[in-house]
Design a protein that fits this description.
alpha/beta; Rossmann fold; 3 domains; 28 helices
Length: 732
């Protein structure tokens, strides 16, 4: 948007539309009723409690606007750029609906007063004419519409002067607290609260303000402060000028007290008309901002603006909604829902400010600073107020917001700005880690957190699907590869010549790192399907002089990370020359006290149908806990578990079978687990292994890599070998 569209200042762009939306029908027609039901002190308390929402929101908005550049859409712009496009879009849609339907409510309020003066005028026709009038003002130029509000503001000031110069009944008995009302305090509060839901009118003009960082804070806070003062003083004057009976029975008591009647009538009509003008200026600009960010369908239409800066298509669409509301809907029935949408917006502004200040990001440096407790109170109070006013509509509004949010998430929109969600969740994780680090470690909290060194990512696709079954749904996965430096250096002269011919005079380090980048790309592609399953996964490439040295360093580093891995997952190579390297990796895991899983893959069968698991259990095996825990993780996805034990004597069959039953019971294994006890030597029985899709063994002290190869060959299946670190306990 060009600078020629920056046409409004603090007074005309923010203060006027905000104060005229605050000073509305509630002041003229309902405040006396509130004082009558609640008493003077009760009315003061209601006004103060209602203004907590707007005062804290105004302060939060002032803080946010002095920290970031505000775009179109006011409150929507702040929320989306702080809590993300999905949250901002959900709130923005509901805020637009509220603003648009508020136009209809204000016009209907104006019409009711008009018809009371001119009973022969058809109400819906009057409403439609008023809509056309304010629409034409807005389409021609927003500046003309705002200047028309100066006239209305003058009339409202005259009506207040007339009221305070009016007739006061000195015989009135002042009621400080009405204990005889047939309504509860919160029922009266609910009637008054819509009086303070108009503060977004000025903020919605944010995209057309000359200096939003100054205009919004000053204009909004002054409007809120003056509005609060007016409500308090009018309530006081009503309380000392009329009896409780008069306040309760006569909605026009404001007019009766005033010295001159017509300024008051003009003030009432002007208040409703100005509120309608403020809302019809604000609502289309929210829709325009939603269109600019592609949040709503047909976004190009709503994002368009004329040469003088008017969002005319958004204006016309909003007018259609308003007219349909006037003609077809009972807006009194859904008015509480609009209040809820405003309250949710105010709550999000407060909470967004609280979050940014609390997480301590350096980018949050507002020139207008407020204590974080103020915004926390404001955010929570707005949410509580929703349920105090109407718990049904509060629940409906939250459900609708959640629905809008889910739609935005599924659409997968990408914003071209940053937000604080990453910092927020990082702060939560840091806080949780500090707390958890003080807690005693317990095997009860075990879950599979795997670290996997990968030499050639292209050979791992089938294996990664198996790994996914182990870590799903709550485990973690850290995949890394070691790029030995000698493979890239030194560069040959022919390589450099080829590089410069193809790429020009770039830094030769780009060429040196080509292998690393390619490996990182392949590794990222390998883990992408697992990430999409919602599993926490990282992938990295480390440069080191030696493969084993690199893995040793990475293992030590990962052991000191947040949520360290507890299992190193390795594979056996068909190249038997690499057995020595596997033995060295096993030694590293043992040295670092990390669990081991070694996969011996039978490539002719892979994992077959991924249904049946054979778990081989030796009596008092130190690796039984890890082997069983991994079997249970696989069981969630595969569905059948078989426990196998080998004994050397027929006489021990019953004892061994009973012992397996005890294990199933004590370790809470699946009740339908099949139990198999075979008589003979372990190596003989491997040849007659019951059919399965994988066999899982503990790594005994005498089991070498050579023996693992032999087991894979004898069983004719893929095999998984487990060695615990002593931190696992299946019986917890």
């Amino acid at each position: 948007m060009g600078e020629n569209h920056k046409r409004f200042g603090t007074f005309d762009g923010v203060f006027v539309p905000t104060i005229l939306t605050i000073i509305g029908v509630i002041l003229y027609l309902r405040l006396g009723w509130v004082v009558g039901h609640a008493g003077l002190l009760g009315a003061f308390l209601i006004i103060v409690l209602a203004h907590i929402s707007t005062i804290t929101t105004g302060l939060a908005m002032a803080s946010m606007t002095t920290n970031v550049k505000i775009g179109d859409g006011g409150f929507y712009s702040i929320i989306s750029r702080s809590l993300g496009l999905e949250v901002g879009g959900a709130i923005g849609i509901s805020l637009y609906i509220s603003q648009a339907l508020s136009v209809a409510l204000y016009i209907i309020g104006f019409t009711e007063i008009w018809v009371s003066l001119f009973p022969n005028h058809p109400a819906k026709l009057v409403s439609s004419i008023v809509l056309v009038f304010i629409l034409v003002l807005s389409i021609i130029n927003a500046k003309i519409a705002i200047k028309s509000q100066y006239i209305i503001m003058t009339i409202i000031v005259l009506s207040l002067i007339s009221f305070f110069m009016g007739h006061r009944d000195t015989s009135v008995h002042l009621v400080l607290w009405n204990t005889h009302s047939n309504l509860s305090f919160w029922e009266v509060f609910a009637v008054f609260f819509p009086a303070v839901t108009g503060i977004s009118a000025g903020a919605a003009m944010s995209g057309e303000l000359k200096d939003p960082r100054k205009n919004i804070p000053i204009g909004m806070l002054f409007a809120i402060g003056i509005g609060f003062f007016i409500y308090i003083t009018v309530a006081l004057w009503l309380g000392i000028s009329a009896s409780t009976e008069q306040l309760l029975s006569d909605n026009l008591i404001f007019e009766k007290i005033a010295r001159w009647r017509w300024p008051v009538i003009g003030g009432i009509m002007g208040a409703t008309l100005s509120s309608a003008i403020g809302s019809i200026l604000g609502a289309p600009r929210i829709l325009m901002a939603l269109g600019q960010d592609r949040v709503v369908p047909f976004y190009k239409i709503w994002a368009w603006r004329s040469k003088n800066g008017e969002p005319r298509y958004s204006l016309l669409f909003t007018a259609i909604i308003v007219e349909a509301s006037i003609l077809l809907w009972d807006l009194n029935a859904i008015a509480p829902l609009l209040t809820m949408f405003f309250l949710i917006t105010y709550s999000m502004i407060n909470l967004a400010t609280y979050i940014e200040k609390t997480i301590g990001v350096t980018s949050f440096r507002p020139s207008f600073k407020i204590p974080s407790v103020v915004t926390l109170i404001g955010g929570l109070w707005c949410l509580l107020t929703m349920f105090l006013i109407d718990s049904l509509f509060a629940s409906i509004s939250l459900i609708l917001i959640a629905l809008f949010y889910i739609i935005q998430v599924k659409r997968g929109l990408k914003a071209n700005w940053g937000d604080v969600r990453e910092a927020l969740f990082t702060s939560i994780a840091e806080w949780a880690l500090k707390i958890s680090s003080k807690m005693p470690k317990s095997p009860k909290n075990w879950k599979p957190n795997l670290m996997i060194p990968v030499e050639d990512p292209k050979k791992w696709e089938g294996i990664m699907r198996f790994v996914k079954d182990i870590v799903f749904p709550k485990g973690t996965l850290r995949v890394f590869s070691i790029k030995a430096s000698e493979r890239e250096l030194p560069l040959r002269i022919s390589h450099l010549i080829d590089f410069f011919f193809k790429h020009g005079k770039k830094d030769e380090s780009d060429f040196v790192l080509k292998g690393v980048r390619e490996l990182k790309r392949e590794l990222t592609h390998l883990v992408e399907p697992i990430k999409k399953e919602g599993i926490f996964t990282t992938a990295m490439v480390i440069e080191a002089e030696d493969f084993l040295e690199g893995i040793d360093i990475v293992t030590q580093v990962m052991k000191g990370m947040f949520f360290p891995p507890n299992i190193m997952f390795l594979t056996m190579s068909e190249d038997r020359k690499k057995d020595y390297r596997l033995e060295q990796l096993i030694a590293i895991a043992i040295k670092e006290r990390i669990g081991l899983l070694i996969l011996g893959l039978n490539k002719s069968v892979m994992f077959k149908d991924k249904k049946t698991i054979n778990l081989w259990i030796r009596d008092k095996s130190p690796n039984q806990n890890l082997a069983t825990l991994v079997s249970l993780e696989l069981f969630k996805e595969w569905g059948k578990l078989r426990l196998i034990r080998v004994t050397d004597s027929e006489d021990k069959l019953d004892f061994e079978r009973d012992d397996l039953k005890r294990i199933v019971d004590e370790q809470r294994l699946p009740i339908k687990s099949e139990l198999v006890v075979m008589v003979g030597s372990f190596w003989e029985k491997l040849k007659s292994t019951p059919p399965a899709d994988i066999n899982i063994f503990g790594i005994s002290g005498e089991m070498s890599v050579e023996n693992m190869h032999k087991i894979v060959e004898l069983t004719g299946t893929s095999c998984l070998f487990a060695k615990g670190a002593g931190d696992e306990e299946i019986s917890c």
